[in-house]
Design goal:
Blueprint lengths: L2 E5 L7 H8 L5 E2 L1 H8 L3 E2 L5 E2 L5 H17 L4 E3 L7 H18 L2 E5 L6 H8 L10 H13 L6 E3 L9 H4 L1 E2 L6 E5 L6 H11 L6 E5 L10 H11 L5 E3 L5 H8 L9 H14 L6 H13 L4 E6 L2 E6 L13 H6 L8 H12 L3 E4 L10 E3 L9 E8 L2 E8 L7 H13 L8 H7 L4 E6 L3 E6 L1 H5 L13 E4 L5 E4 L5 E2 L6 H6 L5 E6 L3 E8 L4 E5 L8 H11 L2 H14 L1 E8 L15 E9 L11 H14 L8 E3 L2 E4 L2 H12 L7 E5 L5 E5 L1 H18 L9 H10 L7 H20 L2
Parallel strand pairs: 1-5, 1-6, 2-5, 6-7, 8-12, 9-10, 10-11, 13-14, 14-15, 22-31, 27-28
Antiparallel strand pairs: 3-4, 9-16, 12-13, 16-17, 18-19, 19-20, 20-21, 23-29, 23-30, 24-25, 24-26, 26-27, 30-31
Length: 749
């Protein structure tokens, strides 16, 4: 992580060779490499090619800028230079390393080879590549300096050239010191919930180890209380503070690195969190000093063992453990983008590679055997989640937060006016609150429609509240704000926002369980004002997907089309379909080229639903009316998806095992309980092929493949890499045929 190693020794002593042998050349900053970037080799008076020394001032300026950039993202770095200069320049260079290390929390090391007689290096120089030879007097002068120069004590000598953060060196056996470990998720300025936790487990009790995953401030309204708490506990030996992505805002301000930053995060920090702090800490200088001390205490990751189980705690989670040293920013920001199913990726590798259990916050994610997610949206009235590890095992708990800004979105709107420079105004104030939030994309469409959908950042950072969950396939009138078409409120996988078992236990019966078809969500509604049907998907009535809906719609029986539209008119509702179309070639389930509109539900065209995700009573009524009057379609062009009602838990578990698990090659299933709460569960088969689809996309686009650990995945990639498959279904068929043929051959031998 944050290690800086400087090489020491005169030319020809073996520094670059040692780097090569250690497998660390990808971590090197070299003045010679920069020299060659700036100027072609020059010819000396003897007709020999040499690396030019004409640009040294610029070279070291660029080297410094590169080093600062690497330190900003926490990249481990080796500087392959002699560091044998004499005088003020050498002192200035070394002091610069020390200043940067203090600012960016780096540890300083140096490595040098075992020193030999200078004549050895002079002789070796004669046999170096022509370009790398240096004048003999340079070697002798630098050798002399090397003998006389001593580095400051804060540079630690390495006996072996390596970074210190190899996993084997980091794992600490905490069970010998502590009775239990408490890992605390994102706090985000919610001090009341934090104090409840601290009181429950007594943070002053030295037999408890506390590990905080980061993101201590921002969004919440008690940032001052959290800051006071951290200042109070930061020196305790039983407290480990990790660095979250939100720490960048206040750290840049504290270290005076914010001059060129005008991004949303920095603006928000200064307008909210910082102003809360300044009500007590009136001296900016003193506050910055204390914050610098606090920041230097924070680690990018923490590895430990408790009763023979190994754990890794990071802020944002990992999809795999790196094979070699990784930049700190990756531990802080995690692997993958907003749509990366991080726990599934880690789980697929965990058993095969003997991974530790990972614990993290930052993002919504499923909790699995080897991944424990502690993001609970505490700042939006959710939960402060924490993990307790003791002799009985480990378990996740949560504290409901009642102290939060219930007008958060209104505050966001004011900020949006400044950031966006525009303000959307309909006659509906709540629609305005959604449309103007920086968490929402408002898209104006033909026929005076406007779509409102949460953006990638909202999804990635799990910013779910009463308004953002509504912005999912929501279409309103640009003038009145009236809902013209809509889908479900945002819903989640089992275990994504809480304990999976607890969510299953708390279902209210009867519940509906339906097959999750593998297509895209399509919405059909009636626009009374324009007297036309609305076909919508992917936040738009245009693009590639809405025409696919209409293509299937036009092929359906007129009777069924009239039935849907009449229900939409009569009840002012939207019909929600899963659309399976061969033109959408991204999906994993093979519908053999057939087109389907699978009716899922009817949703009232209103902003508020009686249920959490859907008004189930409303949908049941309209779906029954549809089914009672429906005429079967050829090839099931339009049909209802498989939907079964379970009246008790035993019945539900029976249906899952006997009907849905019997078809593991589907995407999964969806459950809706009697209150309107919805959950989804995806099958392993689907997740495997979704992962392999990503590998196929990488190969097609020329993008670098990620690290692949599972042998079956490696075999699949080797099979497809030299072939021109357009879709994952096409690739899977060929792959399975190859494997089946190979098995058949083996059986007949």
């Amino acid at each position: 992580m944050r290690d800086l190693i400087i090489m020491c020794g005169c030319p020809g002593c073996g520094k670059s060779t040692a780097i090569e042998k250690s497998g660390l050349k990808d971590y090197v900053l070299s003045p010679d490499n920069i020299r060659l970037m700036l100027r072609a080799p020059e010819v000396n008076e003897d007709g020999e090619y040499r690396i030019s020394q004409q640009d040294n001032a610029l070279v070291f300026k660029m080297l410094d800028e590169m080093l600062v950039h690497r330190m900003e993202n926490g990249s481990p770095t080796i500087i392959d230079a002699t560091h044998c200069s004499s005088g003020k320049w050498h002192t200035k260079q070394i002091n610069r390393y020390r200043d940067l290390a203090k600012q960016y929390k780096y540890r300083l090391f140096y490595w040098e080879p075992e020193r030999e007689d200078v004549e050895v290096y002079v002789e070796r120089n004669k046999y170096r590549d022509e370009l790398n030879r240096v004048p003999e007097n340079v070697i002798r002068n630098m050798y002399h300096n090397w003998e006389t120069i001593n580095l400051p004590k804060d540079f630690t000598k390495l006996e072996k050239l390596r970074f210190r953060d190899d996993f084997s060196n980091l794992i600490k056996d905490t069970a010998t010191t502590y009775d239990q470990v408490i890992v605390v998720g994102d706090i985000h300025g919610c001090n009341t919930a934090l104090q409840e936790l601290i009181k429950e487990y007594d943070i002053k009790n030295e037999k408890n180890l506390y590990i905080f995953v980061g993101d201590y401030f921002d969004r919440g309204i008690e940032n001052l209380g959290v800051l006071d708490t951290l200042f109070d506990i930061t020196e305790q030996k039983n407290v480990i503070l990790l660095e979250g992505n939100h720490e960048a805002h206040w750290a840049d301000w504290a270290f005076d690195r914010d001059e060129d930053r005008d991004d949303n995060g920095m603006i928000r920090f200064k307008e909210t969190t910082l102003k809360q702090w300044q009500t007590k800490y009136t001296s900016e200088k003193d506050l910055k000093k204390q914050l610098r001390i606090l920041y230097r205490k924070m680690l990018p990751a923490y590895f430990f063992k408790f009763l023979n189980k190994e754990y890794i705690v990071t802020h944002a989670g990992l999809g795999c453990l790196p094979r070699q040293n990784m930049a700190a920013w990756q531990y802080i920001n995690g692997h993958g983008g907003y749509d990366f199913e991080i726990t599934q990726a880690y789980e697929s590798r965990a058993n095969f590679n003997g991974y530790p259990i990972q614990v993290f916050g930052h993002r919504r994610a499923l909790t699995t055997k080897h991944s424990i997610a502690l993001e609970g949206q505490v700042e939006f009235g959710g939960f402060l989640k924490y993990l307790v590890i003791n002799k009985d095992g480990h378990k996740v708990y949560q504290i409901k937060n009642e102290i939060y800004n219930k007008d958060y979105l209104k505050t966001e709107n004011e900020l949006s006016k400044y950031l966006k420079g525009t303000y959307i105004a309909t006659l509906d104030e709540e629609v305005n609150a959604i449309a103007n939030s920086r968490h929402i994309i408002a898209k104006k469409l033909p026929d005076n429609l406007m779509s409102l959908n949460f953006n990638k950042g909202t999804f990635y950072h799990a910013i779910w509240n009463d308004l953002t969950v509504k912005a999912r396939g929501l279409f309103v009138d640009q003038t009145t704000g009236a809902v013209k078409a809509r889908s479900y409120n945002k819903f989640f996988n089992f275990g994504e926002r809480g304990d999976e078992q607890e969510e299953f236990d708390n279902l209210v019966y009867p519940v509906h369980i339906s097959r999750k078809e593998n297509g895209f969500l399509g919405i059909i509604s009636w626009d009374e004002q324009n007297q036309k049907i609305i076909f919508a998907s992917k936040s738009t009535t245009q693009g590639n997907f809405a025409p696919m809906i209409k293509d299937i719609w036009d092929r359906c029986l007129e009777h069924n089309r009239d039935l849907v539209i009449n229900l939409c008119k009569k009840y002012n509702a939207s019909a929600v379909f899963e659309v399976c179309h061969p033109g959408d070639n991204t999906h994993m389930v093979d519908y053999e080229g057939k087109k389907h509109l699978f009716l899922l539900d009817f949703i009232p065209n209103q902003l508020h639903l009686n249920g959490v995700n859907i008004d189930i009573e409303f949908s049941d009524k309209l779906c029954k009316e549809f089914i009672d009057n429906y005429k079967p379609e050829k090839d099931s062009l339009m049909a209802c998806t498989l939907n079964i009602k379970a009246n008790c838990r035993e019945q539900l578990e029976h249906y899952i095992k006997s009907i849905f698990m019997a078809e593991p090659k589907t995407e999964g299933y969806v459950i809706i309980d009697a209150t309107g709460k919805m959950y989804k569960q995806k099958f392993p088969y689907y997740l495997i092929w979704k992962r392999r689809r990503y590998y196929l996309d990488c190969i097609k686009s020329g993008k670098e493949l990620p690290e692949i650990d599972l042998q079956d995945d490696i075999d699949f990639v080797n099979f497809i890499k030299d072939k021109n498959f357009n879709t994952i279904i096409e690739a899977r068929k060929a792959y399975m045929e190859r494997n089946n043929h190979a098995q058949l051959v083996r059986r007949h031998r």
